[in-house]
Amino acid sequence: MLALLRRLVPDRFTLSLVLTVLLATFLPARGGAARVLDLVAQVAIALLFFLHGARLSRQAALAGLTHWRLHLLVLASTFVVYPLLGVLLSPLAARILSPDLLRGLLFLCAVPSTVQSSIAFTAVGQGNVAAALSSASASNLLGVLLTPAIASFLLGAQAGNGIALGAVLGVIAQILLPFLLGQALQDRVGPWVRKRTYLAGLVDKGVILLVVYTAFSASVLEGLWSKLPLPVLAAVVGLCVLLFGLGLLFVRGAARLGRFSKEDEVAIVFCGSQKSLVAGAPMANILFSGQSLGLFLLPLMLYHQLQILAAAWIARRYARRIDPNRS
Fold it and tell me: Which CATH architecture has domain 11-319?
């Protein structure tokens, strides 16, 4: 009974997200404070990806690159299948969601895979961790260019306007260049960063919470909660569940049709079905700077929590199938 209760209690980061939304609801950032927080968020985003670049071992990433079929499948799922699912779900979503929520759902479909949780759940599921590391890292690096392009196509088709070139260059300057700088300085900075994994985790979570707070503050000041009745919130959750379920069915079915090993299948399932809030929230903050992002980010936030809960259960099932003696 106690174990069941522990599973039902949200983790600390989920609680932190909820508290951040509540703080933005009752104490939204205004005026000069909002501008300062936005500047701090931009600096923090650059620091986050610098640390990712410094921490990611070139040797470890290269170790899994020989699994090119696995990587192609993961990238196809992330940047082809999910956008197609977004297009297919758009007519249904447009009937029940506001334009901002619909745009947020489409943006979610363009976001790259997670890195930390994909690797962690692959490890728990007794999967190919080296391949998961390479695949998830490649997804995030390619996402710097592919996510703005795909989002521009999806949102342009939906709203009649895409993403400006200046916004794409902003993503490159604020995400890709700090990452490459971290890689260039890896020999000097990497060992120090890898010994302090808590630092990267702290920056990861801090950046997300800061972006969520500033986004929801602006939206609350514009009447966010009057635009989000409970039936609409339930519809967003339902669409996220449907999107995750369809994506999961595709990657698992494709992995089995491709006759991948069980260990490779685990990596494919987690890398191919997950979406990164760590990458997505900062990208949205850069690409749509000056716009109200509270409703826009909500589908990605909900999908992120859903995938964590589902992946924890799926990983344990895979672990028991690969190693029957594992409890």
Answer: Up-down Bundle (1.20)
Predicted confidence pLDDT, tens digits, the chain (327 residues) = 445 445 545 567 778 888 888 898 899 888 888 889 888 888 888 887 888 778 777 666 566 567 889 999 999 999 999 999 999 999 999 999 988 899 999 999 999 998 878 888 888 888 988 788 888 888 888 888 899 999 988 987 554 455 666 666 777 777 778 888 988 888 888 888 878 777 777 787 788 788 888 878 877 887 777 778 888 989 999 999 999 999 999 999 999 999 999 999 999 999 999 998 888 888 888 888 767 778 888 999 889 888 888 888 898 888 887 666 555
- Asked if 287 and 92 touch (Cβ cutoff 8 Å), the reply is no
CB 166 within 8 A of CB 278: no
Cα 153 off chain centre by = 19
Smallest Cα–Cα separation from 315: which of 135, 74, 129?
129
Instruction: Please report, for the chain, how many H helices and E strands are present, in that order.
Output: 17, 0
Q: Where along the chain do its domains lie?
A: 11-319
Region of residue 9 (phi > 0: left; psi between -120 and 50: alpha; otherwise: beta): beta
